[in-house]
Amino acid sequence: MVDTEITLPAIDMGKARDPDLRREVARQLVHALETVGFVFIENVVGFEPHTLLDKARWFFSLPDAQKQEVARKLWNPLSKNHYRGYFPLQEGEVSYKEGYEIGREVPENTQHMPDDLQVHPFFQEPNMWPGSAEGGEQFRTQLLTHYNAALQCGAEVLRLVSLGSGLKDDWFQSLFFPNSLSTLRLLHYPPRPGVVSPTARDGETVLCCSDHSDSGLYL
C-alpha cells in the first residue's frame, strides 16, 4: 500500500463573515468538499479548543462512581436516558474509548416539552450533568457554550455550501433546523492495557475504530 499525504484545505469562517469575501469562501468550501472531501474550519466564533480540552480532561478524570451517575441506562439502571450521557470503556471492543454526550437542553418533565421537541423524543432526552462533582457547574456552562458554537458553525457551513452550489443560502436549513438533533461528544481513548483482543486487530495494526458509516453533518 502506498501512503498518500493529503493536505486539508482550510476554510476561514472569519472571511466568510465579510460580505465581500463570502461568496468566494463558499466556492472554496464546495470545491474542497468535492475534491478532498474534508476541510479544516478556522476562526469559529465561541470555540476555545484549550478550554474544551481542559473540561474533557476534568470529566474523564472523575472517579468512576461519579461518571457512573451520568451514565446511560445500558450501564446505569437508574438512568432514564438511552442516548445522552456517559458510556464507559468496554473490554474487547474494537473501539476502546469512553465518552460523554450532550445535546439541546430540554426540560426533564417531558409532559411540558415544546411541540418541536416531540418530533424525535428518543433523541431529545434531558442532558445528564455531573452536578455532584466540584467544578460541575463550570463544566456544564462551557459545554453548552461550545455546543451552541458548534451548532451555529454547522448552520453557517450549510449556508456556505448552499451559496457555493449556486442555491439560496437557506436551501439546507429545513433539513436540520429548527428540530436539530445535534450532539456534542467528548471522547477519551486511553492506552489499551495488557494483550490487545484479536477483534481489535487488523493483522499487526491495532484498530481504534471499527468500520462504520456516519450520518448527518459532522464537525
Question: Outline of this structure?
Answer:
With 219 residues, the chain is an alpha+beta fold. The protein is built from 6 helices and 7 strands. It is 31% helix and 11% strand.
Explain how this protein is built.
It is a single chain. By secondary structure, this protein is α+β, with helices and mostly antiparallel strands. It contains six helices and seven strands, in the order βααβααββααβββ. The chain has a three-stranded antiparallel sheet, covered by helices on one side. Helix 3 (49-60) packs across helix 5 (136-164). It starts with 9 loop residues before the first strand and ends in a 13-residue tail after the last strand. One of its GO terms (molecular function) is oxidoreductase activity.
Strand content: 5-15%
Radius of gyration: 20 Å
The best one-word shape is globular
Q: Note the total helix count.
A: 6
Q: Report mean pLDDT, rounded to a whole number.
A: 87
Give the strand order, joined by hyphens, for the main sheet.
3-4-5
Order of helices and strands: EHHEHHEEHHEEE
Return the structural class.
alpha+beta
Strand count, sense and closure of the main sheet?
Answer: 3 strands, antiparallel
How many distinct beta strands? 7
GO molecular function, one term: oxidoreductase activity
Protein name: Non-haem dioxygenase N-terminal domain-containing protein
Domain Non-haem dioxygenase N-terminal: 8-130
Keywords: Iron, Metal-binding, Oxidoreductase
